[in-house]
Amino acid sequence: MCNSKKVYVLDTGTMKMDKNNMIAQHNPATIDNPNPPAEFVEFPVYAVLIDHPEGKILFDTGCNPDAMGKEGRWPEGIQKLFPSFQSEECYLINRLEQLKIRPEDIKYVVASHLHLDHAGCLELFTNAEIIVHDSELANVMKMFALTRDMGGYIWADVMAWIQKQLRWRTIKPHEKEVELVSGVKIINFGPGHAYGMIGLVIDLPGTGNLLLASDAIYTAESYGPPVKPPGILYDSIGYMSTVEYIRSLAKQHNATIWYGHDEKQFKSLVKSTEGYYD
User: Fold this and answer.
1) Measured distance CA(48)–CA(10) in Å, rounded
2) Strand partners for 17
3) Residue pair 92/115 in contact by the 8 Å Cβ criterion
4) Residue-wise pLDDT tens digits, 202-228
5) Where are the alpha helices (DSSP H) in 73-211?
6) Chain center to CA of 145
7) Which of 12, 173, 197, 219 stands 20 to 30 A from 268 (CA)?
8) Taking Cα atoms as reference points, which of 28, 46, 47 lies closest to residue 38?
């Protein structure tokens, strides 16, 4: 086990969406309440940097800073459904610069999945090996070839990846746990929220082990019990299996789960401007 790594939480802004996308059927209509109000909730978007002797690792990359506006990268309908909010200091490239790290210093980028709020800045990392689930990459590239209406995936993001000739490595469906570097394992969550999702288990003897779940589990409310699936879902059976797998992994590794978009948990985390976990 490597005991000299540091883990930084990079605050890359927030998004908003209907809470029914986060917790499916969280406020359903009834005969007594036929028109319940919708909730447009705000939630954090973040990346995680692991400063490791074997190479710097970035987990997820947030939203593209050019996503919003009339000339924005995101389609107008997506901007209205899932608006992104970032001050300049929250741009991923600026968060890294605050730590005196350049994009070319990153050796590995682990993309939990390729949705707009997790893979929006992949194009910056032309020197890195971009690691993603095989099913996720295959399906997103197929969608890119067939349509510009890609839902939670952004056509212009994918075009940028192709133009920048990113170097990809995929985690195959049969690869359940893959050691990336000493003390950091890639975990194959499989299909659920997206076509294929991956996370990380990080051994941290100082502050305690971490399990980065990303959107395999949006929030503590999602985790339950009972488990509450999101409204944005590719495979409902796969989702439920993944949550139970994460539950067993957390117990096995005595790890704290970091959820994808839990506002309360995120507020409690030490941000990169304040310190790190080791």
Assistant:
1) 6
2) 41
3) no
4) 999 999 999 999 999 999 999 999 999
5) 76-81, 92-98, 134-146, 155-163
6) 24
7) 197
8) 28
What distance in Å separates the CA atoms of residue 113 and residue 90, rounded to the nearest whole number?
21
Is 6-268 a domain of CATH 3.60.15.10? yes
Compute the half-sphere exposure of residue 65: CA atoms within 13 Å on the CB side of its CA: 13
Q: pLDDT class for 173, splitting at 50, 70, 90?
A: very high
Q: How far is CA 215 from CA 40, 181, 219, 262, 278, in A?
A: 18, 23, 8, 10, 24
What span, in angstroms and rounded, lies between the C-alpha atoms of 13 and 235?
A: 28
The single residue listed with the structure tokens 């949006």 is 218
Distance of alpha carbon 136 from alpha carbon 194, whole angstroms: 7
Location of structure tokens 């990336």: 180
| Per-residue model confidence as pLDDT tens digits over 91-147 | 999 999 999 999 999 999 999 999 999 999 999 999 999 999 999 999 999 999 999
Annotated domain spans of the chain: 6-268
Alpha helix stretches (DSSP H) within the chain: 19-22, 76-81, 92-98, 134-146, 155-163, 220-223, 236-253, 263-268
Q: d(Cα 76, Cα 70) in Å, to the nearest integer?
A: 8
Give the whole-angstrom CA distance, residue 273 versus residue 202.
Answer: 21
- Residue 1, H or E segment: none
Q: Structure tokens of 153?
A: 């995936």
Give the pTM: 0.97
